[in-house]
Amino acid sequence: MQATSLNARPPVAASGLPLVGALPGLIVDPLRTLTQLAHQHSGAVLRVPFGPFQVYMLTHPRQISYVLHEKWRKYPKGENGMWQQIRRLFGDSLVTIDDARWVEDRRLLQPLFQRANLNAMLGELVDSISDGLDTILTQARSGAPLPINRAMARLSEEVLLRSLFGIRVADAEAEELRESMMSAFSFAMNRMLLFFLPRYIPIPSELAYRRGIRRLDSAMYGLMSKRRTQSGPSRDLLSVLLNTRHPDTGEPLASKHVRDEIVTMFFAGHDSTSRTKTWALASLSRNPEALRKAQDEVDSVLGSRRPTLDDVPKLKYLKQVVQETLRLYPAGWLMPRTASEEDVIDGYKIPKGAFLCINIYAVHRDPALWERADAFEPERFDGSESSWPRGQYIPFGGGPRLCIGDQFGLMNAQLTLAMFLQRFQPRLVAGKEFRASGLGGSLQPATDVMMHCTPRSPRTERGS
After folding, report:
1. Which of 128, 139, 140, 357 sits at a 20 to 30 Å CA gap from 101?
2. What Rg value do the Cα atoms of the chain yield, rounded?
């Protein structure tokens, strides 16, 4: 590395205002600001000033592969930057920890996401999706358009509360937990892009974040205490974790460990799946041919019956729809890392302690990497993606730290879309355009996505 460093060039400096750098654009529209910079300097490692801080943004799959796959141990999530704010909410969970602790935690949790456990959760998953769609059906019968982003968020909350906690949104206990979860997450997202402001500065977002975490902890520990006193088998993940023993010591997991893991699973699952379902339905509505193909597949594979685990691999086009949606609208569009030592990435010198940022949204839409980069074309994922450069498509991250729940998330979105298209004909309200907002580090609609959801009956034969 030392010999290579002699020939390395400094990262390309992004233009910005004196002293504050790119900060004004980041506060107003971080998605547009960082994506424009990435596309203007495609292929370079870019140094972007965030006020007094420097962020090193990667713009090419080769650089991303190096950090996530080849030298992932050199680039932990670290204690500083955006992760410092997220760690306050997620605690010491699989998503936030590094080094040997992460290896141990991954080994402990991996069995929870194996096929046998996914199969055991499928019945509850389908039931909760069906109940959520029943609510949408009741609302849709009035003929008025629905904010489909809110409907999908509520449906995802129902799915996760039942899968993770074994409780329903209709329960008072579940409602308190849901509200505390969502408010804490909202406060966390608001703090992410202001990560450089110390916690001792009492800005409103900091004070709200503290209150949100206290409220969430009170609800979580209360539920865990109650669950420990209950008897009888339960398949929800909270019960599974409470009954898990450490493989080396045989001791149960500490209450804080269970709290951190289950809170992280909720937020990782809710934010990604609810956004993905919203963007997928909106994209299908704007692309009639893709919608027709998706409906034909659902009608052919399922007809009017509920899906089973065996149906999931048969819903091939719907999986492509989800994959293309994740390309255009990755829920977590920024991925931060920290350089643990001085290094050279793709010929650019990186100082020790540098705060790196992978702009997934920009890479997924880079016209230098994709034909018709902004077009919704599920057919891209026809199997040829195996030939794409590693690091070009990373909605769930990459390398050893690939999201542990990626298959559950894909299945959740796939089944929700299938069951939605069995029941409804989606149609966006005419003249109501929507765009993505990256405020808070989460890719979400800037305004409500208003959609007519006209009830339909599945066609059991093509052309009927």
Report:
1. 357
2. 22
Return the sign of the alpha-carbon dihedral for residues 10, 440, 216, 272.
negative
Rounded to whole angstroms, the Cα distance separating 222 from 80 reads 31
Beta strands in 12-166 (DSSP E): 12-13, 46-50, 53-58, 146-147
The total of other beta-carbon atoms located within 10 Å of residue 81's CB is 21
Please list, in sequence order, all residues whose beta carbon lies within 8 angstroms of the beta carbon of residue 232, skipping any fewer than 6 positions away: none
Contact status, residue 85 vs residue 191, Cβ threshold 8 Å: yes
Residue type, 268: A
First CA to last CA across the chain, in angstroms? 66
pLDDT tens-place values along the chain, 464 residues long? 444 666 889 999 886 544 445 556 666 688 888 899 999 999 999 998 876 778 899 999 999 999 999 999 999 987 666 677 778 888 888 888 887 888 888 888 888 777 777 777 788 889 989 999 999 999 888 889 999 999 999 898 888 888 888 776 566 767 778 778 777 777 676 666 666 666 677 666 677 878 888 888 888 888 888 888 876 666 778 888 888 888 878 888 999 999 999 888 888 777 788 999 999 999 999 999 999 999 999 999 999 999 998 899 999 999 999 999 999 999 889 898 999 999 999 999 999 999 999 999 999 999 999 999 999 999 999 988 889 999 999 999 999 999 888 888 898 999 999 999 999 999 999 887 778 887 666 788 889 999 999 998 877 644 44
Name the nearest CA neighbour of 435 among 449, 425, 423: 449
What's 45's DSSP letter? -
Class of domain 2-455: mainly alpha
Nearest to 158 by CA among 188, 138, 181: 181
Closest to 152 in 3D by CA, of 291, 325, 307, 23: 325
CA distance 208 to 199: 12
Pure H helices in 110-167: 115-140, 148-160
Q: Which sequence spans correspond to the domains of the chain?
A: 2-455
Cα separation values, 285 from 91, 154, 418, Å: 39, 20, 14
Q: Which tokens belong to 108?
A: 């402990």
Cβ-contact 398, 74 below 8 angstroms: no
> Which amino acid, one-letter code, is at 145?
P
CB 286 within 8 A of CB 294: no
Task: Please count the CA atoms within 13 angstroms of the CA of 244 that sit on its side-chain side.
Answer: 24
